[in-house]
Q: What sequence folds into this?
């Protein structure tokens, strides 16, 4: 049984293959590829872009997240509280990769080599890669680039519908327009 | 890319292995092993036991469920509607295996050969198998057997907490007590 083993100890090629495809399955089910943006007065455009790959699990299955972290060799685990029933709080944990290097060197190549099978997740991943490529070219420091990134991510699955998201607010923000005039 | 292929066409051993472990991952994420019971006046104990294995997906990823059905060669796909956001209904679909043969010959052997990795799902599967073994021995036709089944499934993850479930109601039902007196 692989479950009790350390994923990173999967020297055996066969075992690594099994774990890899299991990871694709769990990410098809529980994973997210997100492009978040937040107001940040210090950022050139007044907003910062944060790409994030994450997988959530309940506290009982925290070991899965620890093993994912070891497998990918990047990212961190954060606690979060989620209201699943009216009066009951179930502790949830999230394995997150936010650092550019980890996303570029580990996460993206892994899912290019082991493609996701769910149409929605595969499409999110494709957009995620496109957005990261633009960020690498520093496009997020220009209004036109930010608009491109936001257009790409508009149809991605996020917690909030697009029109209520920070990405939509960015487009409407007077600050955006003011800074754009300054920088473009 | 395997995603566009028919899972059942996985003659190639390597490919079948990849698909198998991907299935374990998606079931660790989105699958359920349930033991439901419903009132049924015609049943000997006044209640019927329904074991069910299921995997849910949004409409967009219906193809995944179709492929699971082909892979296992049993079960059916049912539409269900789920309220995910206050005013928005997202169509969901469920691949369900309820028939005894499919569970016994396909689902159980598959997950015995390819063990689940999440602690909660693995524990649910173990209890699910135990309950089905009791049903096979017709234990569900006796009050003592039903009580055994209910005790096993008490800590399984179901939609409702145990004390609000039909399984808990069964234990308290005057009908149960009356029938038990008749049959035991």
A:
């Amino acid at each position: 049984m692989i479950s009790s083993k350390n994923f990173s100890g999967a020297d055996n090629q066969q075992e690594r293959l099994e774990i890899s495809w299991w990871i694709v399955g769990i990410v098809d089910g529980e994973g997210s590829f997100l492009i978040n943006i937040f107001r940040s007065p210090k950022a050139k455009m007044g907003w910062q872009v944060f790409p994030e790959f994450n997988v959530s699990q309940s506290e009982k299955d925290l070991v899965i997240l620890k093993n994912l972290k070891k497998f990918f060799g990047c990212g961190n685990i954060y606690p979060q509280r989620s209201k699943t029933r009216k009066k009951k709080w179930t502790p949830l944990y999230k394995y997150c990769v936010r650092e550019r290097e980890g996303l570029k060197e580990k996460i993206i190549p892994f899912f290019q080599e082991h493609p996701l099978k769910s149409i929605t997740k595969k499409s999110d991943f494709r957009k995620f890669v496109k957005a990261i490529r633009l960020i690498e070219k520093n496009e997020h420091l220009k209004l036109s680039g930010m608009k491109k990134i936001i257009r790409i991510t508009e149809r991605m699955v996020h917690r909030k519908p697009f029109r209520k998201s920070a990405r939509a607010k960015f487009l409407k923000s007077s600050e955006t327009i003011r800074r754009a005039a300054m920088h473009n």
